[in-house]
Amino acid sequence: MADELIIKAEELMIKADELLNKAEEADDDKDEKEEDEYPEMWFIVDGVGTHLGMIAKNATGNFHAQITKDARNEYFEEMFTFLRPLGSDAKELSHSAVIIDVDKEEALDAVTGAGFMAKKATDDDHEEILRELDKLQTIKGGESKRYSRAKK
Shortest CA distance to 80 belongs to which of 59, 100, 99? Predict the structure, then answer.
């Protein structure tokens, strides 16, 4: 009788393992099917929250780092110095510098190691960026094509 109970218990454990494996596989399949609507992006900020740049996934599927070059970013030279060696190439523009093909984790480690903060962009952040870009595409009178200022 005890042997029969042990055998039954083992059968139940095997069945439970099979069910757990199926559930994990289904969850993995679901995760693979659910692609992010927006590309991964990290904002780089200083201790008071000033935007200094970003690390983002581009259309090639690789990451790049962009450093803002303006009067608010007093750390531009320092950031360019430690991020530039992490990429395959760099383009310095009038408003920023872009370092191409960086390893995301290595770049994030370099940013945080230098005392800056990196904040992952949320869907709300992406949607706000799209709204702001839309405002730049104005129709006559300076009103957004999609977001009317008129009260309905």
Answer: 99
Quick one: 47 and 109 in the same domain?
Answer: yes
**How would you class 47 by CB atoms within 10 Å of its CB: exposed for 0-12, middle for 13-18, buried for 19 or more?**
exposed
Q: In this structure, are residues 44 and 116 in contact, taking their beta carbons and an 8 Å threshold?
A: yes
**Distance of alpha carbon 4 from alpha carbon 105, whole angstroms:** 54
The domain tally of the chain equals: 3
Token pair 């940013």: residue:
111
Asked whether residue 45 falls in the same domain as residue 115, the answer is yes
Domain region containing 8: 1-35
pLDDT computed for residue 136 by the predictor: 76
pLDDT at 79: 95
Same domain for 62 and 12: no
Buried residues in 9-21 as b, exposed as e (16+ CB within 10 A): eeeeeeeeeeeee
Q: Are residues 89 and 148 in the same domain?
A: no
